[in-house]
Amino acid sequence: MYLDRHIEQPLVEAVAQFPVVALSGPRQTGKSTLLKHLFSAGFDYVTLDDMSLRNQAQKDPQTFLRNYPGPVMIDEVQYAPQLFPEIKRRADGSGASGQFILSGSQQFHLIRNLQESLAGRALLMNLLPLTSQERNGLGRQRHWLNSLLRNGRLDKTEIPEAPEQSAPERAVRCGGLPGLLNKTESFFSAYFESYVRTYIERDISLMIQLENSSRMFEFLQLLAPLSMREINKSQVGREISITSPTANRWLQVLEATGVWHNIPAFHGNLIKRIAKTPKGALFDSGLICHLLQINSRESLLTHPLLGFLFEAAFFNEVQAVISSSLLNARVYHWRAGQREVDLVIEYGGKLFAFECKWNATLRGDEHKNLLRFRAEYGDKVAFCAVVTSTGTFRELEPGVCQLPWISL
Question: Is residue 273 within 8 Å of 267, Cβ to Cβ?
């Protein structure tokens, strides 16, 4: 069953205005399914997973493209970088929009080839895992975060009600990869084990030389409990006996391939933002749970890192909405001494601050750091909220709301 995605309208509009549109993103986020659903009527589709087509595209790109004189979608295009100069020539010669849609799961190589050959001609878009609304079949409905950032405020009517069967613990355990959405939990572990193995063997091995792929798996296992926490790269390296420069390089590779997201520290001074310690998170909460060997609902709900896992799930949703909506927004964390706010979004000169709490029943002091953040930055702070796993949307005090991740 196809699920509508928030990115659909921006993607259709981009294809109508640019000669080349590229869709990247981590493996298995639904890129091919999305493109076929939206454009199969007007575009030929070809995938370079087909070895005979890949071989022709590599050895004779001109002939390959002559076989597709009209608009064409080329999937896994990173396998034939020889195509990019020919795509450039055709795009320049025609000048028409909607000539090529390119996609690929090896994000770094796709972006590099676009920068080298198609700068100024191609628009790059990024598809991340499913949001909570997309999982519940509400992908065509504007996400509440999109409305909040554009309008600077949020109305209760913009928070969609979830179906009765929705459960936040399953959403965290499953994550947002479409291939797991309707599967029983007994398959989760095998699915992610295969995912990690394919990622290391097919993506990582093209960027760095690994003498032992198990070391990269150990590195990912170390990063899982560090998601949404400040990262000491030297300490991470020592844990698996690699140097600090190697740990830093591996982290950069994970970020370049879309598997790790860096979360800078927020500060009013732009220079100090660079100097402060960042946080980070793996791109999918289901993957984090797998690496932590959380194999059941019970093990999740009793896990000491439940709060961080929920925070990671919410952060990944924020990233997905910002990316699909083409919003020029930045996501940070804030820390000043012992005071900390989980996520701060900067958009249009305004700040939007969020604290994440798993329990829907609040004691009353969960938003104290939001108040301190607002006192620090004054009128720049447009919105503050305590995000809970379930519950109802309500005002805790003027300017501070409780915001349910899954509204019941």
Answer: yes
